[in-house]
Amino acid sequence: MSFFKKLFKKSESTTPTRDLNHVSKLILGDIIEFSDSFTLPSEVRQHKFEVIGIETLEFEHQHYPRFKLQGEQQTYVWLSLPGHDHNNFQLSLELTREEVSQLFDLDLFSDVFEEGFTELPSQLPVSLGDWHAERYYQQDIATVGYHHRTDFRTSAPSQYTDENPGREFEFYHLHDAKENKLIDIMVHNNGDTDVYLTVQLGNDSITGYWPIA
User: Fold this and answer.
1) How far is CA 173 from the centre of its chain?
2) What residues contact 63, with CB distance under 8 A and at least 6 apart?
3) Is the predicted pLDDT of residue 200 greater than 90, yes or no?
4) Rounded to the nearest 10 degrees, how much is the dihedral formed by the CA atoms of 41, 42, 43, 45?
5) Do residues 21 and 10 touch, judged by C-beta distance below 8 A?
6) Distance CA 53, CA 76 (A)
7) For 122, left (φ over 0), alpha (ψ -120 to 50), or beta?
8) Which domain of life is it from (predicted)?
9) From the CB of residue 12, how many other CB atoms can be counted at a distance below 10 Å?
10) Is the Cβ–Cβ distance between 170 and 194 less than 8 Å?
11) CA angle at residue 60 from 76 to 178, to 5 degrees?
12) Exposure class string for 47-64: b at 16+ Cβ within 10 A, else e
């Protein structure tokens, strides 16, 4: 069933649906629509996305859900809820190596993984609503975390130990001067490196919810 057919079917259904009014309540199959605000990246502005995966990121003092969203044009983004402020959430776009090399000088980018590095400029001009900022500043370096392909909102992952069943990674985090645009980097034990451009958004960035049931 196509994305639009599923949405149409839901809008025509007379079956009572559960109350869905916040991103923390999302489950697989739910659909959300982003607002027309120019503070949003163009890839998501006024677009609908379906929840196709729910994972958990675990750190020493917190764990939180991460939702994989699929757009109408096969665009994929990640929505996460770090911290305890449920008035805000983060939206992330995963970059390819080629995209990283277009945005940043790779020699400078490699310094992000070194102790004492503090500042990373972008090579591309920045326009309102884009994912990236002109300049980033380092905040976290080599913070140990675990990636679980399981939704732990109603339970807790095993204790934060070496025997943790999640996939271990080192987390690197940079932010712009306003802390609204971020770079999140996950370096896994096998050397795989995931790089994300992340934006901080408020709940008013979502204008519509369509629960699957």
Assistant:
1) 13
2) 56, 57, 148, 152, 156, 157
3) yes
4) 90
5) no
6) 11
7) beta
8) Bacteria
9) 7
10) no
11) 55
12) bbbbbeebbbbbeeeebb
pLDDT (tens digit per residue) in 23-79: 999 999 999 999 999 889 999 999 999 999 999 999 988 999 999 999 988 889 999
According to DSSP, the β-strands at 119-121 and 135-148 are antiparallel
Token pair listed for 92: 């992330």
Count of C-beta atoms within a 10 Å radius of residue 165: 9
Domain ranges of the chain: 3-210
**Ramachandran angles phi, psi of 94, nearest 5°:** -80, 135
Tokens matching residue 10: 């839901």
Check: CB of residue 56 under 8 Å from CB of residue 151. Answer: yes
Query: Given a cut of 70, is residue 93 above it in pLDDT?
Result: yes
Q: What is the pLDDT of residues 49-61, one digit of tens each?
A: 999 999 999 998 8
Nearest-CA neighbor of 133 among 162, 175, 193, 77? 175
